[in-house]
Amino acid sequence: MSCVSTQSNPTGSPSQHLIIMKKYGYSLGSLIGYGEYGTVYEVTFVRKKKQLAMKIISTRKAPREYLSKFLQREVQVMKMLQHQHVITLHQAIKTTSYVYLILELAEGGGILEYIHKYFPCQEPLSGKLFSQLSLGMGYIHGKGIVHRNLKLDNLLLDKNGNLKISDSAFSKVAFVPGTGAELSQTFCGTFAYVAPEILLGIPYCPFLSDIWSMGVILFSFLTAQLPFDDSNLRKLFKEMCQKVTFPSSISISQESKVMYS
After folding, report:
1. The predicted structure's pLDDT at residue 6
2. DSSP label at 232?
3. Cα separation, 39 vs 77, whole angstroms
4. Using 50, 70 and 90 to split pLDDT, how confident is the model at 50?
5. Which residues contact 157 (CB under 8 A, 6 or more apart)?
6. Helical (H) or strand (E) element with 52
7. Sequence-distant (≥ 6) Cβ neighbours of residue 259 within 8 angstroms
8. How far is residue 248's CA from residue 242's CA, in Å, rounded to a whole number?
9. Least buried of 18, 52, 100, 137, by fewest C-beta within 10 Å?
10. Which residues, at least 6 apart from 24, have a Cβ–Cβ distance to it below 8 Å?
11. For residue 252, pLDDT beyond 70
């Protein structure tokens, strides 16, 4: 449910948003991307001359379930999170036709694009990025929150090349101290990254599912490939139940491979 894609702009002309931006002290910058019912722009918080990202969501085009359930959760969750490896929500603005989420800007762009250009990378860099992912997810899980849509598309880089976890659209509070963790029954995520129990449609622990997705991401850091073929669901599940195979064309240390044995 990312708002960044190559589709036509669903939130109309930027001029439609200038009044609300000016009212709250923002100036409009370049278009970063857009999806089915949302658009992301680079903006400047004028008073502090701070570069940020503004995610604009059309309440007329977005599904009711997304607006009433997932968007509210996303805002709730992001207000709870302040961590160096998690994208920060600075402000949420709601009007009759739009919701504006003012977010930390990841100047380094998406890790998926970075992988396409430079990966597979040296293991020290993979280790650094995975360590930062682990720190961010450890913080999120420590708050009793699960992400439920971890994938390369939702990992960004700051201007110094440090990892930032983004897109909390499917996140929720799944653990309340003293009550224990809840099992999830909603299918969330992307086929190639989700845990086997999600594909089976059985109740699953979302914390463990996030960790499975992290393992898929680490494999991609090391190889610039996904460990499983998601073009056929039956084949995908079969591969998940077998030992992970690393491409022979890439030199990977035994220490890294042993994590998947």
Report:
1. 37
2. S
3. 21
4. very high
5. 106, 107, 108, 109, 110, 111, 114, 163, 164
6. strand 50-58
7. 215, 218
8. 17
9. 18
10. 91, 93
11. yes
**Residue 185: per-residue pLDDT:** 87
198 alpha-carbon distance from chain centroid: 18
Structure tokens at 49: 């001359």
Q: How much is the mean pLDDT over the chain?
A: 89
Range 125-131, long-range pairs (CB < 8 A, 24+ positions): 125/221, 126/218, 126/221, 126/222, 126/256, 129/163, 129/221, 130/214, 130/217, 130/218, 130/221
pLDDT of residue 4: 33
pLDDT of residue 215 exceeding 90, the answer is yes
Contact in structure between 37 and 58 (CB atoms under 8 Å):
yes
Distance CA 77, CA 81 (A): 7
Asked whether residue 253 carries a pLDDT value surpassing 50, the answer given is: yes
Residue whose structure tokens are 């499917």 = 170
